[in-house]
Amino acid sequence: MRVLVVEDEQVLADTIAVGLRRESMAVDVVYDGDSALEHAGVNDYDVVILDRDLPGVHGDDVARALVEQSYNGRILMLTASGQLEDKVEGLSLGADDYMAKPFAFAELVARVRALARRAAPPLPPVLKRNGIVLDPANHTVERDGRDIPLTPKEFAVLEVLMRANGTVVSAEGLLEKAWDENADPFTNVVRVTVMTLRKKLGEPPIVHTVPGAGYRL
């Protein structure tokens, strides 16, 4: 899952990003509305966490622009304006959800995951395929009842492959969904992560390489 955090309070923005990355999400961070529109124009985000009171382009105008572009990602407004009329206004601009500061981080994670499920074809909250059970909310993976400890990146790659429902995912697709914009596309980080994931999942292998195309579960 890939998330864009748009928040002008840099400490808060970076803290949110660190927390979401621990939940195996790929997170980009910007601190103003102009940068938000630039990033959304280049990258496909599952969820945009958007502050309203932003420098440059106001958060409301960012939301309007994304809605007018029929952006595929969902918008979660996260702002200090928590009165009922503020929530109504934010949702009327096209936001899919609205949270007021201060907030519980566990609730933010739950809402982001719920929105991401709505941004893609419907899938159950717990993913099951080929004996693998992946629970994004509890960050657990089992194979045939055996716990599989994974790193955040291995977990993210497995989640992308399971959500692909048997179709091939290219290395570029995995890089787009499981890493942020700081990842070097010319490294072998995807291949190495898939290799360690395949080893941890054990025998028989269930992550298959499709030559010249990518990977499939």
UniProtKB/TrEMBL annotation:
Query: Taxonomically, which superkingdom?
Result: Bacteria
Question: Which regions form coiled coils?
Answer: none
Kindly list the positions at which 4-aspartylphosphate occurs in this protein: 51
Domain spans labelled Response regulatory:
2-116
Which InterPro entries does its entry note?
Answer: CheY-like_superfamily, OmpR/PhoB-type_DNA-bd, Sig_transdc_resp-reg_receiver, WalR-like, WH-like_DNA-bd_sf
Q: Which residues bind DNA?
A: 124-217
Q: Which Pfam families match?
A: Response_reg, Trans_reg_C
4Fe-4S in keyword set: no
Q: Which of UniProt's keywords are assigned here?
A: DNA-binding, Phosphoprotein
According to UniProt, the name of this protein is Response regulator transcription factor
